[in-house]
Amino acid sequence: MQTRNVGDIRVGAIGLGLMTFDQSGTQPRQQLLDTVRAALDAGVTLLDTADAYGPGEEKGAGAQGENERLIASILDELGVRDQVLLATKGGHVRTDGGDWGLDSSAEHLRRAVDDSLGRLGVDQIALWQHHRPDPAVPYDEVIGTVKEIADSGKVAKVGLSNANPDQIRAAHAVLGDSLVSVQNQFSPAFRSSRPEIDVCEELGLAFLPWSPLGGLGGAKDLAETFPVFAEVATARGVSAQQVALAWELAQSPVVIPIPGAKRPQSITDSAAAADLELSADELARLDG
Ligand SMILES: NC(=O)c1ccc[n+]([C@@H]2O[C@H](COP(=O)([O-])OP(=O)(O)OC[C@H]3O[C@@H](n4cnc5c(N)ncnc54)[C@H](OP(=O)(O)O)[C@@H]3O)[C@@H](O)[C@H]2O)c1
Predict the structure, then answer these.
(1) Dihedral of the CA atoms 14, 15, 19, 20 (nearest 10)?
(2) Ligand 1 center from residue 174 Cα (angstroms)
(3) CATH fold label, 3-216+253-276
(4) How is the chain split into domains, by residue range?
(5) What is the pTM of this model?
């Protein structure tokens, strides 16, 4: 698979989002093991979790940290820890009401890093991302806390998520080389992140499109919702989802989409997008 950079680490140009990875529902553990194995076999090496990812709204606050524990145990069972860049995030808090609360206070973010270290079972988090701006905390203060976290040695590199161009520039000015990535929404259905992609390219930051297929509600219907993606896909003999990811990769050499997958077939198909080169004519039609 084609590789791209997150800081000075080379990763497969397609990553794997773990938000919906859970053992509580209809997904047997073996299926999740097979999905991670299929991802690695296809060249996927960037895995994305968050401390707030966990199953079911009904679990409320108890969901916090479940996804981190799950992926740590899967990587250990497969014996592949050293083959992946495992990224996590902090700044969202699951509550008993089923909400995803926000807390970017310094106290919470410091504790979130410590908790993630424990759940992931590592001495240092490879990539820790601030999950989302919190209206209750000025972003400059958040950047100051992220700088403290970056300097603590508890994380190797830091990233931002859901940040706008001004916030990315302000963070980069303070964090320098320890800032390596920005994770924002980007897909055929959500194209307004181009300014953030441009800033990332200018500053040499990886841009990780989240919900790159349109999310749980949109991914399966991508071909019906965006017929031009289906037309290109049919002509190439691939899925519309693969065309969407290849189109995202073509936006900039800093783009590394992180499609979610709970089934091996999904990530195997998505990973092939890294080697699907679209022509200028196809890209112009998809941009249209
Ligand atoms: N930073 C943030 O605020 C934020 C917010 C949302 C998401 N994220 C990140 O982005 C990741 C991906 O987002 P997402 O899961 O919401 O949406 P997504 O990647 O756009 O869509 C995931 C869905 O697409 C299906 N799928 C994957 N590859 C496919 C393929 N090649 N063909 C057909 N269907 C395919 C999956 O099916 P199966 O599951 O059945 O395999 C799943 O239902 C998350 O896991 C998370 O890491 C971050």
Answers:
(1) 60
(2) 32
(3) TIM Barrel (3.20.20)
(4) 3-216+253-276
(5) 0.98
